[in-house]
Amino acid sequence: MSTDLWLRRFHPAPEAATRLLCLPHAGGSASYFFPVSRALSPAIEVVAVQYPGRQDRRQEPCLETVGELADRIADVLPSYLDKPLTIFGHSMGASVGFELALRLQERGTVVHGLVVSGRRAPSALRDERVHELDDNGLITEIKRLDGTETQLLDDTEILRMVLPSIRADYKAAETYRRTEGPRLRTRVLALTGDSDPKATLAEVDQWADHTDGGYEREVYSGGHFYLNNHVPAVLDRIRAHVRDSSSPRPASSPA
């Protein structure tokens, strides 16, 4: 399995003291994090994950479980663990990031920090079945969340290419379950929008139950893709998390 297929460094920063691994949302791709890479380099080297089934990997079969995604990424990461690693995941990417952090911890690497964005905690379960809807229903949901550039969904050819990966990602996110099991030893920072229909503040705060490394929460105005309207503030918060996580402290209450 080629590391180059999975991991993308848009702005290599060999002198950076730390790395940020970015995991996309359902239907998302590594290129979503190109601006993040540009903004944080060269102080932090950004590595973005490209899931199979999209863009230059669209000929590959999609993976339909969070666990399998985490397994595959963990297998290609060893050469990137020579520096402290912080994981950032948005929406489905947050679930994948959590499971990835657990796998790395089991293999002897405690990640520097985990930033979970726009996602309720693994133990905050909902019975969601968007992935079972027909194509029109799936498109309606995507437009409601205002994530994937909605004008692209009016292009029949592009729509035909992206819907299978979106459906597979929704299935992975909606069928993911973890109510008990090992806890992280990593500090967790949760970022969320105050009107996100996919995650209430109470559901977000349950992330504190999944780590012994400390928990903080930051709330922004907006919905599921609040971060698109708060890029400078979100990047500043990530920088601070990377910096502060270098000196662990006891678990804290939500901000």
Automatic annotation (TrEMBL):
UniProt entry keywords in alphabetical sequence: Hydrolase
Domain Thioesterase TesA-like positions: 21-242
Top-rank taxon: Bacteria
Regions crossing the membrane: none
Signal peptide per UniProt: none
Pfam family, one: Thioesterase
Family listed: Belongs to the thioesterase family.
The protein's name in its UniProt record: Surfactin synthase thioesterase subunit
Species whose genome carries this gene: Actinokineospora diospyrosa
